[in-house]
């Protein structure tokens, strides 16, 4: 089994409604996502996949949907206020944790045909969450 990993960087704001500490307040992160794709055989170029193809697919989704967005749980009381103000945000079915974002990016790429093994999102320099499925 071969694997390749490509890193993508982006930013978002969020808050964690059920967090007991400081993360229940709106704050932001500049994060690194490491996306790993696998293959049992290499293609005619000798690659699992061109790093650039993976980066392009990941960036299309991340930059279009997540980057510089405000990620909120759909029940966050800010949602109607932001809607009324015409502000950009994304209302999520789950809490906007690093775990959920890793899973969301994984599922998006898998649905587009990439043999994703794992997505790891480094929310800070010393804290990350990963989502994995067999690839
Ligand atoms: N399992 C998770 N725990 C936490 C998440 C998360 O997404 N998954 N998120 C947060 C906060 O949003 C934020 O990431 C703060 O993280 P934390 O590492 O606690 O904050 P610091 O960088 O300030 O930590 P120090 O290492 O003490 O500086 C919280 N938890
Ligand atoms: Zn946070």
Question: Which whole number gives the mean pLDDT?
Answer: 97
How many beta-strand segments? 6
Poorly predicted sequence stretches spanning 5 or more consecutive residues: none
- What's the CATH first level? Alpha Beta
Distance, first to last CA: 10 Å
The number of helical elements comes to 3
Pathway: Purine metabolism; 7-cyano-7-deazaguanine biosynthesis
EC number: 4.-.-.-
Protein name: 6-carboxy-5,6,7,8-tetrahydropterin synthase
Pfam families: PTPS (PF01242)
Structure, described:
- The protein has helices at 51-66, 78-85, 98-111; strands at residues 2-14, 27-39, 69-73, 90-92, 116-124, 127-132.
- The protein has 135 residues and is of the alpha/beta class.
- It has one domain: Tetrahydropterin Synthase, Chain A.
- It has a 6-stranded mixed beta sheet with strand order 4-3-1-2-5-6.
- β5 and β6 form a beta hairpin.
- The relative contact order is 0.21.
- The model has no long low-confidence stretch (mean pLDDT 97).
- The structure holds ligand LPXRUNBV and zinc ion.
- Residues 16, 23, 97-99, 123-124, 126-127, 129 line the site of the ligand Nc1nc2c(c(=O)[nH]1)N=C([C@H](O)[C@H](O)COP(=O)(O)OP(=O)(O)OP(=O)(O)O)CN2.
């Amino acid at each position: 089994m071969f694997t390749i990993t490509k890193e993508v960087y982006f930013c978002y704001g969020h808050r964690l409604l059920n967090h007991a500490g400081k993360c229940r307040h709106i704050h932001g992160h500049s994060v690194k996502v490491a996306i790993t794709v696998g293959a049992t055989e290499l293609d005619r170029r000798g690659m699992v996949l061109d790093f650039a193809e993976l980066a392009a697919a990941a960036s299309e989704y991340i930059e279009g949907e997540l980057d510089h967005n405000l990620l909120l749980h759909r029940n966050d009381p800010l949602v109607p206020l932001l809607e009324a103000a015409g502000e950009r945000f994304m209302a999520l079915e789950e809490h906007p944790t690093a775990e959920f974002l890793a899973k969301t990016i994984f599922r998006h790429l898998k649905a587009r045909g990439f043999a994703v093994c794992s997505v790891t999102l480094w929310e800070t320099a010393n804290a990350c969450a990963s989502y994995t499925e067999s690839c």
